[in-house]
Amino acid sequence: MFVETEEFAKRLEAMDGLEREAAYEAVVRWFAENSGRITHHMHLAPAHTATTVRLGGGEPIVTDGPFVEGKEVVSGYAEVEVADLDEALKMARSWPACPIVEIRPVA
Amino acid sequence: MSEPDGDRGSREVLARVVREHAGRLAACLVSLLGDFSAAEDLVQDAVETALRRWPVEGVPDRPDAWLFTVARRRGLDVLRRETNYRAKLARLRWPQPGEGDDRLRLVFTCCHPALSRQARIALTLRVVCGLSTAQIAAAFVVPETTVAQRLTRAKRKIAEAGIPYRIPAAEELPERLEAVLAVVYLLFNEGYLSSAGDRAEARDLADDAEWLAGLLAVLMPSEPEVAGLLALIRLHRARGAARFDSHGRLVPLAEQDRGRWDHATIADATALLTRTARAHRRPGPYQLQAAIVACHAEAADFEHTDWAQILVLYDMLLAVASSPVARLHRAVALRYVKGPVAALAELAGLEEALSRYPLLHATRAELLRALGDTSQARLCDERALGLTANPAQQALLHQRLDPAHGEWP
């Protein structure tokens, strides 16, 4: 899971066209280099587009925004097929974009 | 080091025998079953049976074969539904012919950075050193259920997150080895610092740490930092007998009876360090810390300490691994090279990082006292006293706050 921070969003914002293009290319390259392991991946629209539904407390409650209001938001994910955690860690280490990557096995 | 008390003596023998064999058995069973948790449970079961029966029946002639037989029988029993495991276990013979020592893989799995620090320590003690959950709990003065939960959670994470059972690849090795050495060093510190009188009954974790460092040094002869850590632990322990007086009070380095140091061990550890330095020429934090302790250990008395050399070593240490605590220790060396005023100036820069670290305040007190400012020194000692929970440190500070007593370098 790729996690963006406020600081990262600001840095992205401050980039000029060329810089942003280079950053984008680095991500494309990472996906190309790791294509053998990636089964599928998804980039999510920004957190301001999120809607959250809370169930279990009687009537479902629908609220605007992501499920946790915080400085860190999940911005996308990639499903990968690896032998063990070390292989996943190696991939995560070379991820060129947002500053946090959470690794979780698929249940 | 061992005490005349026979009960403690036999417990130490038991611990040594279990430690020598439990890890090997665990390593073999993890390889065979490919299931860390199941293998570990079997070994733990055998270890607990041994701890119950050996004190009564005596240690068997072939402790490894005994542990294996119990673990195997138990495995065939509890793994009834896992026909695959049972078949593998049924074929297993002991000792394993021609197998190398697999324990290194075990160590790297137990010290994987994806596990919490506490989990790494507990797992290493249990799986590699063969401690029981109760023994780990007693050593860290925490409830047994806490340790049991920590271990269960860690084993689940190993299985579910896919933490591998292997020695890391060359490019990962430096970082992963650092994590392993950190676990051993933490273990040593825990054992060494809490070895005050009131916990004499607890297992000596420093002993386990030295054994682990020794094991790693045999299994990884080309890693200079492993030898450095082993030398560091041995040099510290060689001075153990002089660290406490007959009342269990901590004795400052300057006042220690150097005749009670284990000079043969000091000579051996220093030789190991020199050999390592010459062979590799890659000084890392553990080798440098060991070299500093060796400098102290080689001085005939406190007055003959080679402080200039120690200061050089601290500068090298800070260049490879700077930390506020290392800078504090360097300031103490600086005092003896350039005087207390220069050392005090160094401490000013550490106030923020170490404001809750008792030794910062105790050191400042020491320097102020050397400059004749006894009232400020007293305030600093009181601050240090309020921050330490270690009974030996507390006693020493109480002594210092009583003006009849001397200094604490």
From TrEMBL, chain B:
<dbReference type="Pfam" id="PF04542">
    <property type="entry name" value="Sigma70_r2"/>
</dbReference>
<keyword id="KW-0805">Transcription regulation</keyword>
<dbReference type="InterPro" id="IPR046531">
    <property type="entry name" value="DUF6596"/>
</dbReference>
<dbReference type="InterPro" id="IPR013249">
    <property type="entry name" value="RNA_pol_sigma70_r4_t2"/>
</dbReference>
<dbReference type="InterPro" id="IPR007627">
    <property type="entry name" value="RNA_pol_sigma70_r2"/>
</dbReference>
<keyword id="KW-0731">Sigma factor</keyword>
<dbReference type="InterPro" id="IPR013324">
    <property type="entry name" value="RNA_pol_sigma_r3/r4-like"/>
</dbReference>
<dbReference type="GO" id="GO:0006352">
    <property type="term" value="P:DNA-templated transcription initiation"/>
</dbReference>
<dbReference type="InterPro" id="IPR036388">
    <property type="entry name" value="WH-like_DNA-bd_sf"/>
</dbReference>
<dbReference type="Pfam" id="PF08281">
    <property type="entry name" value="Sigma70_r4_2"/>
</dbReference>
<dbReference type="GO" id="GO:0003677">
    <property type="term" value="F:DNA binding"/>
</dbReference>
<protein>
    <submittedName>
        <fullName>RNA polymerase subunit sigma-24</fullName>
    </submittedName>
</protein>
<dbReference type="InterPro" id="IPR013325">
    <property type="entry name" value="RNA_pol_sigma_r2"/>
</dbReference>
<dbReference type="Pfam" id="PF20239">
    <property type="entry name" value="DUF6596"/>
</dbReference>
<dbReference type="GO" id="GO:0016987">
    <property type="term" value="F:sigma factor activity"/>
</dbReference>
<feature type="domain" description="RNA polymerase sigma-70 region 2">
    <location>
        <begin position="18"/>
        <end position="83"/>
    </location>
</feature>
<keyword id="KW-0804">Transcription</keyword>
<feature type="domain" description="RNA polymerase sigma factor 70 region 4 type 2">
    <location>
        <begin position="108"/>
        <end position="158"/>
    </location>
</feature>
<dbReference type="InterPro" id="IPR014284">
    <property type="entry name" value="RNA_pol_sigma-70_dom"/>
</dbReference>
<comment type="similarity">
    <text>Belongs to the sigma-70 factor family. ECF subfamily.</text>
</comment>
<feature type="domain" description="DUF6596">
    <location>
        <begin position="176"/>
        <end position="276"/>
    </location>
</feature>
